[in-house]
């Protein structure tokens, strides 16, 4: 199974271009189990376009994870992130740093995210 990155049940999986209030909820698991959150010093979620170019990096505060939590991170798609996105499909990875090094979720592929057209925004 390896490292998995999945949307929680109540997380959006897409947004509209120009919407700066979307908050993704992503679960980090390994072999189907919550990850060990002790010792995590950094979490960065990277969004890449269809040519595998990173278009945005979103920092997530690692102190929001607690040992009794379910390894869920919240990822805001705010105005800074949205200003770098266009209509289309993106892939996501979570880069988690601890004392052992960098762990990249998911182990295989990426988690897909979609930005849809909206009225009033230049496409």
Helix content: under 10%
Order of helices and strands: EEEEEEEHEEE
Rg (C-alpha, Å): 14 Å
Q: Shape, please?
A: globular
Q: Count the beta strands.
A: 10
Characterize the main sheet. Answer: 6 strands, mixed
Structural class by secondary-structure content: mainly beta
Mean pLDDT: 91
Commentary on this structure:
- This protein is mainly β.
- It is 3% helix and 50% strand.
- It has one helix at residues 79-82; strands at residues 3-7, 14-16, 22-30, 33-34, 42-48, 54-60, 72-77, 88-98, 101-105, 111-116.
- The strands form two sheets. Strands 2, 5, 6, 8, 9 and 10 form a six-stranded mixed beta sheet that branches.
- The protein is globular.
- The termini are far apart.
- The mean pLDDT is 91.
Task: Name the features.
4-stranded antiparallel β-sheet, mainly beta, about 50% strand, 6-stranded mixed β-sheet, about 120 residues
Brief account:
By secondary structure, this protein is mainly beta.
Write the layout of secondary structure elements.
Layout lengths: L2 E5 L6 E3 L5 E9 L2 E2 L7 E7 L5 E7 L11 E6 L1 H4 L5 E11 L2 E5 L5 E6 L7
Parallel strand pairs: 2-10
Antiparallel strand pairs: 1-3, 3-4, 3-7, 5-6, 5-8, 8-9, 8-10
